[in-house]
Amino acid sequence: MKLNLPKLFVDKMKLLLGEEYERFLASYNEERFYGLRINELKINAATWLEQTDMKPYLQQIPWCANAFYYTDDVRPAKHPHYHAGLYYIQEPSAMVPVELLDVKPGHRVLDLCAAPGGKSTQIASKLQGEGILITNDIATERTKPLAKNIELAGVRNAVVLNEHPANIAQKFGEWFDRILIDAPCSGEGMFRKSPSMVEEWESYSVERCSTMQREILDEVAQMLAPGGRMVYSTCTFSPEENEEQIARFIARHPDFSVVPIEPRWGWASGNPQWVSSEAGAELSKEQLLSIARTVRLWPHRTKGEGHFVAVLMRQGQPSDRPQSVEPTQLSIDWSGITMQDHKTYDKVKGKAKPKGKPVKVKGAKVEELDCESIWQQFQLENVQLTGNGQLRAVMFGSRVYLQPEELPSLEGLKVIRAGWLIGEMKRNKFAPFHPLAMALRPREAARVLSLSADDEQLLRYLRGETIFVEEQQLQFNASVKKNGYVLICVDQFPVGFGKYLDGMIKNELPAGWRMM
Ligand SMILES: C[S@@+](CC[C@H](N)C(=O)[O-])C[C@H]1O[C@@H](n2cnc3c(N)ncnc32)[C@H](O)[C@@H]1O
């Protein structure tokens, strides 16, 4: 591949890399690496490897235990396992920031610049359904694929926002144990993967990006709890957006320090000599040297695209978060469905409703509906959720979300998903939505139809067609009537709902989720 690299970029790289420059340049003529990461919310890597016909084309990515390089003759996005959210296709270097964030089940995590959601799904997989993920992106049009990826991955404990960082900070304060800033950057490290980035490079100047990054860093610093950890990453080579940015940040925020990252697998240490003398003068010698604790992934030294990663820690004692326990009893609190939630929703949609007037759900006022009984009836006939602790049901319009109880009110924020979107109230009925199916475990569904990946019926279902089955093909997990919602699975992993009626399954897969 012949890339026309901008002259300004070439000159700068020669200066930075010296005799290594030729090797760096040669990497642009080499094949890029493709990666996929197993979604451990659904399956672990070893079990998936036993099942997949892709195994001969996979090679372990050394820095991510559940991820593999694949050769580009495999087309994982076309496989039904992709539609079941069993893996996410992700550039191998892009997996590093979350691997270094040290996320544990129970943590409160903010992924500030999250769309389209690669790193958010990686965080969710590490949370294992416990704790909370707030995933945000400032670009409204990018929050749609973000929400979709969260739902495809079967995440139950995430909220998707479309906010300016300052508004999140105002609402949450020092609430997060972990924060990821996968910053908007000049994207120099992505020239090989996405040649269109070369054209964008001129308009997204390094200077403009570094101003944006500085503002973002200052805003998120207020949201990290004492003792918390924060990862800052970019996919660019420019020191102004990397070493210099971190040096200036620790000078402005002396309660933060740089945590060492071991430069393994061909990674290089960050270079303190690339910090300008002006920025260096603000730091102690020790602080300046600590910049070498950051890492750079160079495409000529490692099997992935260019990245920079810094791990920062805030002084203080980290809070203890509840440890995970075996799922026992899940209870849902329906008492908090308030008018406030409707107003927030209307604000997002840009349609202000007159104060105090309730939103109607197919002719009924929400207040008049016994939502809890309607849900109980649906559960009795179709699903039985398991898990731990208490969730809170909230409604935005007629849509019903489940949120972890410890989540503060989202009032006033631009909310794309207020939690796990399970369905909607239709007067005196509950209609389930696709994200409910995607995050179900098959044993939680009353009726299951599991097909193998190469079954023609499954492909028909994924294309949005009605399918016909024998009653014996269905697996019943509860004593319910035969007709009703059925969870369609590939190899026991959900891909969506259907509605079974005497041998026919009406397809409930939303249009945007079908296999092309
Ligand atoms: C490098 S991309 C993120 C990629 C993403 N982390 C992933 O792994 O899929 C940077 C994102 O930052 C968003 N962004 C830019 N400025 C922002 C800001 N001030 N606050 C939040 N997000 C911002 C952009 O819209 C863009 O989606």
Automatic annotation (TrEMBL):
Positions of the SAM-dependent MTase RsmB/NOP-type domain: 24-315
Presence of the UniProt keyword tRNA processing in the record: no
EC number, as in UniProt: 2.1.1.-
Molecular functions per Gene Ontology: methyltransferase activity
Binding site for S-adenosyl-L-methionine: C113, A114, A115, P116, G117, G118, K119, D137, D182
One example of a Gene Ontology biological process annotation: methylation
Residues at the catalytic site: C235 (nucleophile)
Record's protein name: RsmB/NOP family class I SAM-dependent RNA methyltransferase
Native organism: Paenibacillus septentrionalis
